[in-house]
Every structure is written in C-alpha cells, then in structure tokens.
TrEMBL record, chain A:
Protein name: Sodium-dependent bicarbonate transport family permease
Domain of life of the source: Bacteria
Sequence intervals crossing the membrane: 6-23, 32-51, 63-84, 96-113, 125-147, 167-186, 201-219, 231-253, 259-278, 290-311
This protein's UniProt keywords: Membrane, Transmembrane, Transmembrane helix
UniProt key word Nucleus: no
Keyword Lipid biosynthesis attached: no
InterPro entries named among the record's database cross-references: Sbt_1
Automatic annotation (TrEMBL), chain B:
InterPro entries: N-reg_PII, N-reg_PII-like_a/b, N-reg_PII/ATP_PRibTrfase_C
GO terms of biological process kind: regulation of nitrogen utilization
Top-level taxonomic group: Bacteria
Name used for this protein in its record: Nitrogen regulatory protein P-II
Molecular function in Gene Ontology: enzyme regulator activity
Length: 319, 103
C-alpha cells in the first residue's frame, strides 16, 4: 500500500512541486488557474459527498461521525497547546494560534486522502465531507480561549462581527457546504448532466493542484526564519498523535475502516486557509511565521506523503 | 499651468486579513478615499514571502491613501500602537496633487 501511494501520480506531482521549489526552479502555476482548480476540487468533493448522502440517507453513523468530528476539533487544540507551551517554548498567544490550526482541518489533505483511499478500494463514506466542514471552525474558538485565558472577547479590537464573518463566510466553507447541499438536493440523477466535468477530470486537476501546493509548501518552509528544532518536531508529533486518536475514535464509534481512516486524517491535518486568516484578525499579535510554517510547511507535506498511508494502515489494523 | 497643493501620501503594507481594520481607522479620522494594491512577493526581517491565491495565508496588501496633513497625522497616531502587533510598514511622504480640495 505504501509503495502504491508513493508512486501514485497525485503524490508524485506534489513531490515534483517540492523538488522544483527546493532547486529554486522558476516553475509557477498561474495564480488565477490555481484558484480555479481549488474551486473546482472543493465543488467536486462537496457535490460527490452530498450525492452519496442523498443515496444513503441520514444514518446514525453520520450523526456519530459529526459529533466525533466536532468534539475532536474543539478538544485537539488543548492537547496541542500543552505541547506547544511546555515543549515548544511558545508563549500563550502564539501557542493558542498554532493550536487552533491543529484542531481545524485541511481540505486539500482530505481531498487527496479520499482519492488515494478510493483508489485502494477504501472509499470513505460521503458524509465525511460534512464532517470535514464541521471541523473547520470549533478549533478557532478553542484557540482563542487558550490564547486569551478563557475569554473570547477580551480584545474588542480583535473580535466581533469581522471574525464571525471570516469564520462562517469563509469562501472554502461556503463552497464546500453549498456544494454538499446541492449534491444532496440534486441526487444521483441530477448529477448525471454535470458528471463529466466533475468526475472525468478530477484526478488530473488534483495532480496539477498538488504540484502547485508542493511549490507553495516548500517555498513557505524554505523562506521561514521562525522555526526551531522543537517546533519542527511538534509539527510532526501533533499530527501523528491527533491522527492516531482520530482513527481510534472513528473505529470505536463504529465507522467503517475507510471512514475511520478519513476521520484520523482530518484530525491529523492542520488548516492553512480558514484559520490563518481568522487568527490574523483575532490574534494579530500572534506570529504568522510560526503557525503558517508549521501547518503549511511541515504538517501538510508530511500528511500528504506519509500521514495518509499511516492512518489508513492504522485504521486497517485496528478496524 | 495647473495649480497643485501639498498633501500627504500614506502607504501601509499590511496582511490582507487586517485591511478592513485599517480602513475603519482611516474612516474614523475622516479619510474617505483609499486604494488597495495587490502585492506579489517581498522580504524583510522575518524572511521572504510570496502571495498565493490558494491559501491566501501570506497575502499582503498596500493601502494607499492621500490626505491632508492633519488627517494623515491623526491616522498615524491611531495606527502607532498597532505597528508591532499588526506588523505594519507605514510610510508618509509629501506629494503634489491637483484638485487638492478632494483630499
């Protein structure tokens, strides 16, 4: 399974992006094209999830997975915060901001994992897309509570409607949830006319998108001056422990192997779209050089190249 | 020859998510006009960075404002406490403008 994953075009394109950035190649994906690909991928994954749920209906598994996802997103930052302050040596505000990233999720990691798992005959349930959307935001609240010693609104300059708007109207959340609902309403028959666009080209677009993400992640890492050995270690330790916890909880609540693996991958992933913007608004004094470098520069590539295989293997072992 | 008057040109390099906050401060000192300039890449004390539209995690914007000396001073006073925490790069310079009554 490991060799199969590492030699899949999706992962190889990601590695190519990293390689190109490391050798300082002038390879670049046009910004507008990269943005269009991310919109396409999120719409496709949302639609497919909604269609699957429209076929299967709202099952008890969906409810328990949603509750598990919400709980993980809210609670994982507390564990990360303890490690970041005690072992990582970060101050309360930086640790709170970083911890929020590790409770929230990475859509791209999930999309890649779903594609790889499906290719291996382990297709996660469609409702995991809804779980993904639910896990985006609770961690932001936990991170703010941790950074501000239990008070969400201690700094009027940094809170209020702007933050709420950023959290709930974030483009990726709106698109993902909206596409999911469209899939739910349209169902399999309604999807047929648009299926060629959203299914035929999906894997190829994902390859090109991950090429760009490899470039972005490696450039973020090489340009960072804020990481030390302890923070690098934590950017690897936190996803491994979070992911193992996610797989274990997924298995204990009775999810199938693929969905338990997906829950583990969601728990292991770190946000680099919704949370950085929210943290920049809510905790402007927190250093973006730390939380972006950890989540995007280290944890994201780790999860894409190793984490997905690791958590699917773990789910297969204990499932 | 067209008559010109001296005004202040204020440029603020800021992380894009914080732009609405700074615009709010500008409005509070009665500055009603501004332009936002997309920034591709840069470097500084904390290393280099590049804008990417996918994550927008490292997006930065330049806010360009032209204002009277009094309004510019009021804005600088309002932003001074935020320079470090927001990581702002704030510059103010004299410029000549036509139609000075607009600023």
């Amino acid at each position: 399974m490991i060799v199969e994953t590492l030699t899949s075009p999706v992962i190889l394109f990601f590695v190519l992006g990293i390689f190109a950035a490391l050798i300082k190649s002038d390879l670049a994906i046009p910004e507008a094209f990269a943005k269009a690909m991310s919109i396409y991928l999120m719409a496709a994954i949302g639609l497919k999830g909604g269609i699957e749920v429209s076929a299967s209906g709202f099952t008890p598994d969906l409810a328990t997975a949603a509750l598990a996802g919400l709980a993980l997103s809210f609670l994982l930052p507390f564990f990360a915060f303890a490690l970041l302050t005690r072992f990582g040596g970060l101050g309360q505000i930086d640790a709170g901001a970083v911890a929020a990233h590790y409770g929230s999720v990475s859509v791209v990691t999930f999309v890649t994992a779903k594609e790889i798992l499906t290719g291996q005959g382990l297709s996660p349930a469609g409702y995991m897309v809804a779980v993904l959307a639910l896990m985006e935001t609770p961690a932001i609240i936990s991170g703010l509570l941790l950074a501000r010693r239990g008070q969400l609104n201690s700094n009027t300059e940094s809170s209020g409607n702007g933050l709420l708007h950023e959290v709930f109207a974030n483009g990726s959340v709106v698109l993902l949830v909206g596409s999911f609902v469209i899939g739910l309403i349209a169902g399999k028959d309604g999807f047929e006319p648009v299926k060629p666009l959203f299914e035929t080209g999906f894997r190829g677009v994902l390859c090109l998108f991950l090429l760009d993400m490899g470039l972005v992640a490696a450039r973020r890492l090489t340009q960072s001056k804020k990481l030390n050995a302890r923070l690098v270690a934590l950017a690897l330790i936190i996803p491994v422990t979070n992911g193992a916890l996610g797989v274990t909880i997924g298995t204990l609540i009775g999810l199938d192997v693929a969905s338990a693996a997906a829950l583990g991958i969601l728990a292991a992933s770190a946000s680099y779209i919704a949370v950085p913007a929210a943290m920049r608004m809510a905790l402007p004094e927190a250093d973006p050089g730390i939380y972006l470098s950890m989540s995007l520069g280290i944890t994201f590539p780790f999860n894409i190249i190793i984490g997905i295989t690791l958590f699917s293997q773990l789910a297969s072992m204990i499932g | 020859m067209v008559e010109t008057v001296t005004r202040k040109r204020i440029e603020i390099l800021v992380d894009t998510p914080l732009v609405p906050r700074l615009i709010k401060h500008a409005r509070e000192v009665d500055i009603s006009g501004w332009s936002l300039i997309h920034v591709d890449a840069g470097g500084g004390h904390d290393g280099a960075w590049q804008h990417d539209d996918v994550t927008e995690a490292a997006a930065k914007t330049i806010i360009l404002i032209i204002a009277s000396e009094a309004k510019a001073a009021a804005l600088v006073d309002a932003l001074a406490p935020l320079l470090d925490s927001y990581g702002l790069l704030l510059t103010v310079g004299d410029i000549q403008v036509v139609r000075g009554d607009r600023f």
